[in-house]
Structure formats: structure tokens, C-alpha cells
Amino acid sequence: MHGITDRTLVLETLEKIGEEVILQGWVETKRDHGKLTFIDLRDRSGSVQCVGFQMMGELTTESVIEIKGLVKARPERMINSDQKMGAVEIEVTEYEVLNKAKELPIPVSGDGKEIHEEVRLKYRYLDLRRPRMNMALRKRSQFIQALREYLFKEDFVEVETPMLTKSTKEGARDFIVPSRFQEGKFYALPQSPQQYKQLLMTAGIERYFQVARCIRDEDLRADRGFEFTQLDLEMSFVTQEDVMNTVEAMVKHAVSEVGGVLKDQSFPVFNYKDAIEKYGADKFDIRTEEEKEAGVLAFAWVVSFPFFKKVDSTDAAEVLDGKSGWTFTHNPFSTPIAEHVEQHLKGENIGDIVTAQYDLVCNGYEAGGGSIRAHNPEVLKSTFKIMGYTDEEIQDGVGHMLEAFEVGTPPHGGIALGLDRLAMILANETSLKEAIAFPMTSSGRTAVMDAPSPVSAEQLKELHIAVAASPKKKAK
Ligand code: ASP
């Protein structure tokens, strides 16, 4: 096999008519015509027809091969103008099979939507070969690259925060990880980097971002897994408008870099109350039917949300957080708007307090959300008091934040954008799973690999864990 310096990509053969080239890739299709065998060879740049005289008959589709051959212009009448590679073909002189493919468990041509989800995910490495899926991953990568470019230009610093951490309150259950060294103690996987990014503001970073993995133990819906990726950012010395303007400019840059078309160059801003009145929800689609057809992206902001809401007794995480019967609507680390700080500190008219929260919606989906934070320890304490936490519970839960807020924490605010969702919208898909390389199945099983799965008795013992038999089993 040759290395990359000898390799020509399929797309490059258009410029190499008359030259001998080495191509590497997959046998996309094969047609036998007696002595002549035609294959389409596919690599990351495209696929091209290759012709073998008395050879290649034994190749199986989707095998990986290397060929040596001559690039020839196809005769005028044979040019297939529908195909970007229609003007050339390769006359094969030698070839080598690098990996022979047996019959595939799922087809890799077509859009794959007719294949059962569990099967697509079990063979995800094949499913991703289809151009639709391959393109979605490439577009996602380009979009993230463009976001990064913008943020670096604006003096942001990319910082990683821990995966093994303490519970962060984002309104979902935590995934917990047992400690081997400290018997009976657990880490939580981050629901978001919320607290660490705020601490980076205390640390003087001023402008932080991260392409952050977040893990929340939520009830699964067809379209939601336990993990997701967000573009997380935080800024110091900013007003709500500053953050919104920065995010808007960043999103506009990145969308245009991947060829997306925006409905509004300036994203309209709705009050929560007006949005509910007008659309019956705080995420809504402001596109016309024609704009929907054309795949236009319509972003809008929603602001002026209530800070607190009554606990939904059917939501386990809310019941846990809202001990007083009140819980936060978006983020307990937010500040109330300036006019409401006093009543917040006094715990008065709780239902009327407005938070400095802003949500970004796009095409009917929630694309992101953020807020200006409480950086005064009294305000943060008051939020947890309103939710019914005792002083000890507050100290235990967010004492480290209160402490940091007493040693020079600048006013700050930030946002997180849901990258899976944005990638989905940009790829013109309607399921999040189509924009994630290895998503979970709807029943919470991992793609390709078999998890969750039992672990050995030794592993459990080391972790000081005993698995209780389910009540049904005990009864037997
Ligand atoms: N931490 C919030 C979230 O994950 C976003 C933010 O307020 O920055 O939804």
C-alpha cells in the first residue's frame, strides 16, 4: 500500500487527465460486463468510475482497495453531466485489496431512513458511510470550526473543565460515579460547566468558551439522549445586550460559513409573556411556509422569563430542588433583573421576579439559553432560600461559589448553545440523532457497543457497591 504522498483523491483526478494515479477507497458499486469490470471507487472527496480489463471481477462492494491507473477523459457522448466526476474515468492497471468486505448487514446507499433505528445504530460505522450522514458530520465540524474562529478573534480562551465533579443544578438528575478510594462517596458527571465557567471569571479569564459535553439523566424521549454537546461561553463585565450581541454575531458568522441562509440579520427579541400569548410556547417558528421550504434559519431571542415557578410534583429533579414548592425556571445561578433584586433578597412576590435570562430559538427549537449571573453572594443565597434550602444545605451545595463571590468576582454572564440541535437544523434533518456520530438508542443503549452492561463482582467490590435485587426478584 502507498502512503498519502503518493495518493490522489478522486476529486483531484479531474485535473490529472493523462496521468497515472494511485487511488484508495471503497468499492461503491460493481458492474461486470464480460471482460470489462466497472467499479465506482469512493473516497472522502467523491466517487469515480474505474474500468478493469480482465480484472477486478472478484471485488465485493464496500471492500477497501488501492488502484493504480490512468486518468482518461470520457468520450463526449459518455459524459454524465449530473455527476461531478462524470468527465473522467480511470483505466486500472493494478489493484490491491486492503480490506475485503463480506455482505453488509445494512445497505449504505440511500438515506437509510427505512432501516430500524436499533439496527442503524448497531452498525453505525456503516450507517455513517451514506453521503447524507457523512455530510452531516462534516457540516457540524465546519460549523464548530467557524464558531471557534469567531471566538478566538474576539479574545476568548478555550478551557476544559472536569468531567468528574460535584452535582451542578441544571434541573435534571445527575449521573453519579462511585469513588474507589473513598468508600460510599460519589462524583457527579457535569450537567453543564456552569459553576466552573463562573469560577473562571473569578480567575480573571474574562472570556471563556468550551465545546462542552454535558450529561443529564433525563427521561428519554425519542429524540433525546443522556449526553449532548453545547458551545458554552461566559464573559465578564458585560450586560445582557453585550452577551446577546456577541452571540448573535458569532452565530451569523458561523451560519454563513456553512452556507446557511438567515431570515433576519438582526434577531427579533420577544418577551416571554408576549411569546406565550402569540405562539403558546417559548419556542416557536417565525418562518413563512416558503421560508420553511427553502430551509431558511429563523433565530429569535426570548427574554424576561419568570425566575421561579411552582414545583411540578411529577418531576423528580424539581421536587428535589424546590423544597419550598418553588423552583427555578432556567438557572439558579442567574441574577434577577436589577429592578427585582430587592424583592428577590426579601423573598417577596416570588412569582413576579424576572430573571436576566435570554433564550435563543431557531425554527421552533430551543437553540440555546443563558443569563447574567448573580455575582453577589447574598443574591445567590437568596435564590436557594426561596427554594427552601437551609443555611447548611446552601453551604453544602454552593458554599464554594459563595466563597468565590467574596474574593473579587466580576459581574458576568454567558450562554450555552445546543450544538447537536444546531447541527441538526443546518443539515436540514429533523432528528437530533442524524447530527450525532454515535447517539444512543431511544431506549438508552449505546451505539455499536453494548452498554449499559453488567460489571464483574470484583469491580463492584472495589467500588464498595452491592447491587440490590429488584423487588420482583426478591419476592421469588
Ligand atoms: N448552564 C446553562 C445550561 O447548560 C447555560 C448557561 O446559562 O450558560 O443550560
Structure notes:
This protein starts with 19 loop residues before the first strand and ends with a helix. Strand 2 and strand 3 form a beta hairpin. The chain is elongated, with a radius of gyration of 27 Å. The protein has helices spanning 117-122, 124-127, 131-153, 194-202, 240-257, 272-279, 289-293, 316-321, 341-346, 377-386, 391-404, 419-426, 457-462, 471-475, and strands at 20-33, 36-43, 46-53, 64-73, 88-99, 157-158, 176-178, 186-188, 207-215, 227-236, 269-271, 299-306, 308-310, 326-328, 354-362, 365-372, 412-418. It has an eight-stranded mixed β-sheet, sandwiched between helices. The chain has a five-stranded mixed β-barrel with strand order 1-2-3-5-4. The protein has a two-stranded antiparallel ribbon with strand order 7-8. Helix 3 crosses helix 5 (240-257) and helix 3 (131-153) crosses helix 12. It is built from 14 helices and 17 strands. The chain has two domains: 10-99, Nucleic acid-binding proteins (OB fold (Dihydrolipoamide Acetyltransferase, E2P)), CATH 2.40.50.140; 122-435, Bira Bifunctional Protein, Domain 2 (BirA Bifunctional Protein, domain 2, 2-Layer Sandwich), CATH 3.30.930. The protein is α+β, with helices and mostly antiparallel strands. The structure holds aspartic acid.
Task: Give the strand content.
Answer: 25-35%
State the CATH class of the largest domain. Answer: Alpha Beta
Topology, number of strands: 17
According to CATH, what is the topology of the largest domain?
BirA Bifunctional Protein, domain 2
Which secondary-structure class do the elements indicate? alpha+beta
Bound molecules: aspartic acid
Low-confidence stretches: none
Under CATH, the homologous superfamily of the largest domain reads Bira Bifunctional Protein, Domain 2
